[in-house]
């Protein structure tokens, strides 16, 4: 069977270690700070997480850019030229236009004589961060089991809503500014001491589902939601990510151990694009289980 | 005056008006009969506003039948009812009127029966009747006066017993209610009722007190009738604007002038539009935030015969004027769910609106909104379900009475008893359950987690809960209890927080600053809270409320 590469993008938040372990490549997005463009690589080579959140707290204009045509062409070609097919699992189409650009690049590449026998599969993850990241890991595991690119793509497409996100945040300000959250007006104001809880919904939007008084209540609640959602916990990995809050991560880890007791708990930090979009103090849990019903 | 044996509408009218005027003359004394020595007593004012609604309604009435006069009075009192004693009083008269219904006149026995029925009805509207209050006095006095009746008794005889027993019963209220005993006061509502029946008796002695519309004479209650409209007020309702425009031939073709030209402009700049063209004159009524814009435009077509512009936020205090002047210039939008919140303090109202309250009814501890103001608020909305957030236990009954008298929307009165509870319920606003009962339950649940705190000053020396209080001291009230009395407001705040058993575990604190708090005091309060309770996330805003220096929600 022909080999195939699995690619994510800068929103998938897979560390070097995980990308290496699961042989996953990714396409770069960008961050623009006060007009200066920088590469949003997941290893924070050009700037650190502290830099980023510092800029945001200082009120600098921080924006993100989607994967460029050139970047897609380079990354796809690099694999195609090695004789591999390409499976790209994209950031949610509700959050980024990258998936459309990828489709465009795919069409133009496959028109070329040299790639006429190549295959490029593109799946919209309807998620981001470790929702997308854990989907990529799952795809890699299936590849290892010997599944074909068609089978893996079909599985991801059919199961993507089972990758659940439960996130809480200090302020919706950044997500609102970025236009990347759906919430009824009642939820919109920043309310002293009140934390919104949001999921990545059935169409891939960040959707505020409820609010909790105080950070601790909010963190307890996302663990509770994760517990209600996860299936076959003893064989699952639960992913905990925070922007820059190691104490919160530690608290959540302990809580998840007590409440869910999964096979593994993986703790990490948000990558540059997600961090830039959600802002400091974000905490999020990802679990695989029941399909997300919100927004259906 | 001759002994009265038959009571018709005319006499009943005099009784009510006299009762109302006598209470008015003594209402400040009733206001001061406050359990807590804090400057927020309002029972006298509330009861007066309530009975005054009835007195006003029947003053101009020419009805002679007692049944009809009693009905008019009770219906108006129901609408103008404020505060718990006011609501109870209005329901007393409702009971009286039900007994008198269909009768032209009654004898003394019949009159006595009506008072019996009055107190019985009043008891039915209170969920958990508390003895040692106005209810007890209504019951004991009416029962004693009824028992003392003989076939010879005149109405004067009846009132003699009624008043004697009511005074005695009022004196006994501290024996029945511990809080009264501790504060060394009699129940304020009970005392108010005594003044009412004493006023009635005076009418029988020929001391007819002329009905003076108390809100238009000099000693009226401006704070009760006027929502504050001052330098910090936000224009909420716009202006009711009316004018007659003489179309001018040198400006337009008067004969063929199309009214639609004007209407289109009005629609873009206002609503509640009524306009018509009569020959060469146009008459317009419109609610708008920018009357100047409209008037300037209109002058393109003619000149004004008359212009009248009224700020709809300034409630017309003249009770003789029956026009409703509070309206909403914003177009009504149909809503499945809407919220009416009670608020005092510009800053608090602003935050409530920002958090999702659709209509603010102004009022609070010292200015209880009437049943009618709730009904007006409901009317200003077009909603299937309306949730009402009172901010004081003394407002809940009036809100519930309004709910019972309203059928255009389903009304849910939430039991928010403090501004902090009201604040928290709004902060946690969530309609996603999409079922009105479930949403109401959710609000109640959120409220149950709230700890409320208030700091205000003392108006007299007192000792409550073992706390020595000096006049002028600042008192900290945690939930319902006075927990500290201090020389400075910030000290009172800090001691009050300390009194909360779980303060060390609290994660969030919201503090609303009153009008009297200086910038230095705000800074001191915030600094001391964050250094004493570093774990707490503290938020603050200028509530600009009267009376309370600090309101906190934990």
How does the overall form of chain B come out from the CA principal axes? flat
Number of strands of chain A: 13
- For the record, what is the CATH homologous superfamily label of the largest domain in chain B? DhaL domain
Shape of chain A: globular
What name does the CATH topology of the largest domain in chain A carry?
Rossmann fold
Q: How many alpha or pi helices of chain A? A: 11
Number of domains of chain A: 2
Q: What is the SS-derived class of chain B?
A: alpha+beta
- Major sheet of chain B: order of its strands? 15-14-11-18-16-17
Our measurement of the CA-to-CA distance between the termini of chain B, rounded to an integer number of angstroms, reads: 61 Å
Taking all Cα atoms into account, the compactness measure Rg of chain B is 26 Å
Average pLDDT score of chain A: 92
Q: Measure the end-to-end span of chain A.
A: 37 Å
Largest sheet of chain A: 6 strands, mixed
Helix fraction bin of chain B? 40-55%
User: What is the CATH first-level class name of the largest domain in chain A?
Assistant: Alpha Beta
Kindly describe this structure.
The complex is a heterodimer of chains A (296) and B (554). Chain A has 296 residues and is of the alpha/beta class. Chain A has two domains: 4-160, Rossmann fold (3-Layer(aba) Sandwich); 162-288, Hypothetical Protein Tm841, Chain: A,domain 3, CATH 3.30.1180. Chain A is 39% helix and 25% strand. Chain A has eleven helices and 13 strands. In chain A, strands 10-9-8-13-11-12 form a six-stranded mixed sheet, sandwiched between helices. Chain A has a four-stranded parallel sheet with strand order 2-1-6-7, with helices on both faces. A three-stranded antiparallel sheet of chain A has the order 4-3-5. In chain A, strand 9 (194-200) and strand 10 (206-213) form a beta hairpin. In chain A, helix 5 packs antiparallel against helix 6 (149-159) and helix 9 (215-229) packs across helix 10 (246-259). Chain A is globular. Chain B has four domains: 6-216, Serine Threonine Protein Phosphatase 5, Tetratricopeptide repeat (Alpha Horseshoe), CATH 1.25.40.340; 239-311, Alpha-Beta Plaits; 334-431, 3-Layer(aba) Sandwich (Rossmann fold), CATH 3.40.50.510; 452-553, Hypothetical Protein Tm841, Chain: A,domain 3, CATH 3.30.1180. The longest helix of chain B is centred in the first third of the chain and has 24 residues, at 9-32. The radius of gyration of chain B is 26 Å and the shape is flat. A six-stranded mixed sheet of chain B has the order 15-14-11-18-16-17, sandwiched between helices. Chain B has helices spanning 9-32, 43-59, 66-80, 83-100, 108-125, 134-147, 155-176, 178-183, 188-204, 222-225, 259-269, 291-298, 346-355, 371-379, 393-404, 419-427, 436-448, 489-498, 519-532, and strands at 6-8, 105-107, 239-247, 271-278, 281-288, 302-311, 334-343, 359-362, 382-389, 410-413, 452-457, 462-464, 467-469, 474-478, 481-486, 508-514, 537-545, 550-553. Chain B contains 19 helices and 18 strands. With 554 residues, chain B is an alpha+beta fold. In chain B, strand 16, helix 19 and strand 17 form a beta-alpha-beta unit. The interface between A and B is medium-sized, with 17 and 20 residues.
